Known about the structure:
Blueprint: H1 8-13, E1 30-34, E2 43-47, E3 58-66, E4 77-79, E5 82-85, E6 90-94, E7 99-104, E8 110-114, E9 121-125, E10 130-134, E11 137-141, H2 143-161, H3 169-184, E12 186-188, E13 195-197, E14 207-208, H4 209-219, H5 224-235, E15 247-249, E16 252-254, H6 262-270, H7 290-297, H8 304-324, H9 338-341, E17 355-356, H10 358-377, H11 381-399, E18 402-403, E19 408-409, E20 412-413, E21 416-417, H12 436-447, H13 480-492, H14 496-513, H15 536-550
Antiparallel strand pairs: 1-2, 2-3, 3-8, 4-5, 5-6, 6-7, 7-10, 8-9, 10-11, 12-13, 14-15, 15-16, 17-20, 18-19, 20-21
Helix pairs in contact: 3-15, 4-5, 4-7, 4-15, 5-7, 7-10, 8-10, 10-11, 13-14, 14-15
Amino acid sequence: MTGVAIPAASRAARFLDLVSAPFTLPGSRILVLRDRDGLPEALTVRLAEYEKPLDDCVLVRTLRVFDAEGAVARVSGVRPDRIEFGAAGVTLTFEGPDALSLGGDGGEWDAEIVLPDDERAVRFSSSAGAVRISATGISRIPRIVHDDALAATARIWDDWFVRTPAVRDDLADMTAFCWWVLGANIVSLPGRGARAVVPSKIGYVGLWQWDAYFIAAGLRHGDPELAKEQLDLAFAFPTADGQLPDVVHDEGILASSDDLPAGDRDTLRRAGSSIADPSAPIPLTKPPLAAWALRRLEGFVDDPVWFDAAWATVARSQEWWFAHSDLDGDGMPEYGHPYSSGLDDSPVFDAELPVASPDLAAYLILQDDLLAARAREVRDGAAASRHAERASRTLALLEAMWDEDAGYFRSSGAGVPVEAETAVSLLPLLTGRLRGGHVSGILDALDDPDRFATLWPVPTVARRDPSFSDERMWRGPVWVNVNALLVEGLAVSGHPARGRALAERTLRLVIDAGGPHEYFTPSTGRKAQTATTAFGWSAALFIDLAVAVSG
């Protein structure tokens, strides 16, 4: 555990560079970043909105501060609660979630602000007191308002950081930063009645179903109630037949291809995909890890009535997979759309849809096993038998996907075997029920430098596969959620030491790469070029793994 009394906020501040980690506030949509495309000493202020690029949501194009001599005052420090312009004695902080406050310590200073639709710079001086910046405009405010805003913003972050989970000394700095990421990514979704921890305010503003599950796994160690709120949102909008939506967002939910944003449709068209404009709506969801997430809150959340309702929702969603996503009627549900897998760009989806994939089979087996265990706990013997029997049937279908010659579980598209070897072939470990030969085959793949034993494991596509890419999303880069599932899979399949070794290597990856990025290159361990930063599930699962290895 941490032996040096360094406040978590100070640890997190070491990573706040205003590039990969913006200045923001829990519950706010406002982001302050360095103006990388313009003046190097300037800041820019953006809004985080669902399916809108930050460049389309500019509040302030450039903001610069000048000292008493008229020289540009560069940013001298960034803390969770303020940005400091040391030479001018000026600070920028939040005045609630919807506004920023810029003010000084009593000396002379000036600020120059350029609005998005105006080439003209507006000047403010210390004689004005302080400046409020919001979506409704820029106005002068008394200095006392700025001082109160500083104190209030500090209290918000102090209340957040006091919950930082305790971990080993060597993991404490990154854990504090990851805890900051989870707090920074909190937004309010209008009319939803709960706080969403979004994947990233830089690019992903909404509650994606399986992101919510992974994020809840990390939040439970410091804020179980907020973890519960993530599942509340994920479970709040099932369809009449039990399907859980892919995304809950500002304007509604994404549960069907009819709900896809225009940008997603355009991306699919550019890829030449027939599902850009399907002839009939395709359900959109995410992999069935709901029971996996719900189990993680047991012992952290004391709310039996809530658990009863949540387990009922999970049971209905499980029925949906078998009743409505077994698209060829063979007893094994398939992915009807790449988005429902979460692995949108994986080469398994270069095949014709629907795709039967070993990861989906593993998730369904695990979920039925967990539902059976829950049914036994509440003494519902009929439900326990039903779930257990279906899990065994699905396991038999999964075992039939093993290709003995290739040495891995093979996906199929529209009934045709898929050649690509990807991480989905490793995830059946998660069931804890594989035959010894299948476990040995997966361990061989993990140990093979031509397959998954890269410098920084585990790549999402085997290195020997023609579709492997060090950089391209889901076609080679390392993802923390895949590693975390494999850590668990190794443990439940009889190899806990190997699981712990992968956990330690994953923690080191995030530390060496400088933060919980969306995905990482397996050859260098750096952030992949197109990956976003301050990514929610990477941060949450870093915390979850750090707590586990620190125990």
